[in-house]
Amino acid sequence: MEKEGDTKITRNHWQRLIGWRQTQKVTGEGEDKKEVAKKDIFLKFKKNLTEGIIDPSEEFYYVWLQVMTIPIFYNAVIIICRTCFEQIQMNFLGVWLTLDYLADLMFAADMVIKFRTGYLEQGILIQDKAQLKKRYLRSFIFKLDLCSLLPTDLLYLCFDINTPLVRVNRFLHMTRLGEALDRMETRTSYPNTFRISKLMLYIFVLIHWNACLYFALSKYIGLGADRWVYPNASRPVFNSMRRQYFYCFWFSAQIFTTVGDTPLPDREEEYLFMIADLLIAVLVFASIVGNVGNVITNLRDRDNVFFPNHELVKVYLRSRHISKDLRKRVSDWYQHLYINKKITRENEILKQLPVQLQTEIAVSVHLPTLSKVTIFQNCEKSLLEELVLKLTPQVYSPGEYVCKKGDVGHEMYIIKEGKLAVVADDGVTQYAVLSDGNFFGEISILNIKGNKSGNRRTANIRSIGHSDLFSLSKEDLSVVLSEFPVAKQHLEEKGRQILTKMGILDESAEGQQTETEKVEIKLDRLESNLDTLQTKLARLMSELESSNRKMQGRVELLELEVDEMDQLPLVELGGEGEGDGELDGNAGEERRGEGDREREEAEGEEEVGEGSAKGQGNGDNEGKEGDGGCRESTKEETEKQGFERIVDDMDKGEKYEKGSREKREENTNDDEAAKADGDPGGHSETEPT
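Request: output the structure for the sequence above.
Response:
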């Protein structure tokens, strides 16, 4: 027994040591990352100093803007305070002069950085020093920066050194403050809080300036002259420097908050000061109300985006007279979401970002969880990146069934947080408990052939407490796997191995299914071949129609030429025999020439048909044997058609020659008969007298 106890103690001791070592590794990795980040910032800063070009989107520029807010606020707050409260100026004169010239040095350094700050032109960072210098010198900001650094401190020689108002030109550098605050607002993780803080800062500076001007006006009128001005400093209570500033600040705050507990003015100067303060107070109050209202609206919009609208669901449940138990379950579910900040609408929140950024965010959030699934291990990283965008977060309440036995599986589940129980049909007996990182339902979404369960759930899964799950639907998985065929085969093979271990894979059914798939593949190939043959036949028919139209055009041209030859005027009777012979000879030559031209055109058409048939045959060499037989038959048909065209043309030419010869003979006979009637002596005009 003692040995067993000793072994348990040593085992626990080693476990604690291993756990401590792992925590040390994690902390060490975190510290290493921080050190690497610091080194990166330092290297970028060194690179900016050596190269002399600063990118506005880098961390160095953002940090420099934050640093520049210090001298800007210093000048905005201290100069007016030293001018109005002389005691503050005289008691800390050395400190103020040192801080003044440090602020001037920072302003000068800021101008140098502006000379080296790049800008975007057509999306490209301009890094040409001459171009950057030219752009800054021509800008209005350069004039303001230059005026803010004018050596107005030389006026100390004319006036007293206790007149810090000569440095009023330093206020012209305030333009840098707006850029710094805008950058900080876009980078902060709490923009609404930052807006409220910025508003309160503006109000503080405004009240501070008003307090300084109130004290200056009181000194101009006379301290203690009436109840409205600052009390007489001869009294020890009101002679303190801190008391002077705090009293004036309190008086200004009362005016701007419109409390109305301030003494009534007695002089015209006091009335004018109060009127100006009340007008400014109206604007301050309106800005406070408007900004706070915008912050509240933004918070409400954020809640509506992050969480479902509970009020609409409540109204619907009341209008449909849903039972109290079911309404309570719905309220508990909403309450769990709000209290624990569970987000169920991640896709709607990130939809405004580019797809690449959405993928990177989803990978950083969900990829470790998805990698735990057995069937997705050793898969391509690009496949997992596509799948993480399809994961849908779901939250289940205690006692709620995720799936029941016999249901058709349309999605798989990955447990992110919580515990689920595999229970019997009675809902009481528990077979197993699933916790973080476990998954179920992966076989039903793969649609593996030969699965005896038929893609139906084989167990009842119920949530023990509140459980956070990720679901992946079958449709989304099929869409993604359609682009990754190798991964699809890999996943199906893993699924078959799992089904074989479970003993619910029917291999015979799988073989039958593969045969049916082969038959379907063959049918698809035959259909594709039939489509190609139909397209080829349509091409041949179109070519045949075009050749027929061309032949009809040629025939019409030949008829017109024959008609023109028949209408030519006859030569005189003296050269009738010779003219007839010449005409017959010329007509015969013309007809032979036309016949030769027609035969050449027919041969050319045959060659074109053969060339097109050969081109089609070369383009379709990857087809089946049926395509070759079709090409040979079409070639023979085109040759026969060309030969028949030539024969028809020759027959038509002979018929036209016979018809034209008969017409000429009839015309000559008619002319001779007419001449015989005109000359009774029977002498022709060509005979010698």
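Residues 1-11, 570-588, 606-632, 678-689 have pLDDT under 50 and may be disordered.
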